[in-house]
Amino acid sequence: MEENFNMVAKTLFGFEDLLADELTQLGALYVKKGTRNVSFSGDKGFMYKCNLGLRTAVKILKPIHSFNVNSEKELYDKLYAMDWSKYLKATGTLAVDATIHSDLFTHSLYIAQKTKDAIVDKFRDTEGVRPNVDLKFPDIKINVHIDRRKCTISLDSSGDSLHKRGYKTATNIAPINEVLAAGLIMLSGWDGQTDFMDPMCGSGTMLIEAAMIACNIPPNLMRKEFAFERWPDWDVELFEKIEESLLKKTRDFHHKIIGFDKAPSAVTKAKENVKNAQLDDFIEIKHEDFFKTQKGGDEKLHMVFNPPYGERLNIDMEEFYANIGDTLKQNYPGTDAWFITSNLDALKHVGLRPSRKIHLFNAKLESRLVKYVMYEGSKKGKYMK
């Protein structure tokens, strides 16, 4: 039996509850929420499972040592004292990143450099050979986290952020992060039991994440590599067994997932990404201007989208957001419409009262995820208070 150990899954602000639920459903032990992270316990196979199967995690870290630190010299000395030969060969490669929340240490790049120095100096002094830095494909990626005086050293089991699912080869201006897209859909409560629409679908991220949620497809099956594949204890048979067990839990989906975009280039890119994700059977993308469309049929519709915020596109935001409200009100009865925006002034021009507002961030932009419920039976736009 593999031994259990502690891990930390990092996530985006506002997704901690979602991630804790995902971990619990996967079978994690001792799940505990933090800020932008959730700690838990599991074995090596479970670490593989988390990297493959979690939708709202951006990293899975495996802490290997923690200590108090009061100076840069003490940091160096304690790192130097660790037995790094358990994790890395003297001829191997490494990369270090640091996250700092401390008044004593303020420069994360400097702390990362100091960590690298301690490790390579130790190898050079003990073995006469030193590892090299490789920022793209290191044998191990080390994460240093300093919170006030407490320093935690972790191995990054993921490597590249887990939002890099592997299906997206074509992007537009301001593409939405895959983890953010999955989290928005999960926060909206969509469960695959109705039709789904993204009326401003860009490169198709929201549609692809919705299809994977509907079919319970593990989000990171298409990743080229995880960092743990370069670790000394990498177990390819165990990994394949975990992959197989996750694939057995996929399910059928009997509704439609529809995307519109008025830019032909976006439609082309979205179709390409959907094809890469092997989800063409579930997703239909049309070249349409949302403001000139209306809902087809009487079935309930669930809409989640990421409209322009005005950060990079030169359009009249007040008019644009007023058009969103008018189109929903007049043409989309029987629809739960959710969208995220950081343009809180433009949001006031939608002309509908949201039934929910959730505080989130899109990258560094403070944003709101808002919900508008458009009732059936009246095109005069009855909507929730």
UniProtKB/TrEMBL annotation:
Instruction: Report a single Gene Ontology molecular function.
Output: rRNA (guanine-N2-)-methyltransferase activity
Q: What is the superkingdom listed in this entry's lineage?
A: Bacteria
User: PROSITE patterns recorded for this chain?
Assistant: THUMP (PS51165), UPF0020 (PS01261)
Q: Which Pfam families match?
A: RlmL_1st, THUMP, UPF0020
Question: What Gene3D superfamilies does the entry give?
Answer: 3.30.2130.30, Vaccinia Virus protein VP39
All copies of domain THUMP, residue ranges: 46-157
Q: Which CDD domains match?
A: THUMP_AdoMetMT
Per UniProt, the keywords (alphabetical) are: Methyltransferase, RNA-binding, Transferase
Q: Which PANTHER family match?
A: RIBOSOMAL RNA LARGE SUBUNIT METHYLTRANSFERASE K/L (PTHR47313), RIBOSOMAL RNA LARGE SUBUNIT METHYLTRANSFERASE K_L (PTHR47313:SF1)
By what name is this protein known?
A: Methyltransferase
Species, as recorded: Algibacter lectus
The organism's taxonomy opens as: Bacteria, Pseudomonadati, Bacteroidota, Flavobacteriia, Flavobacteriales
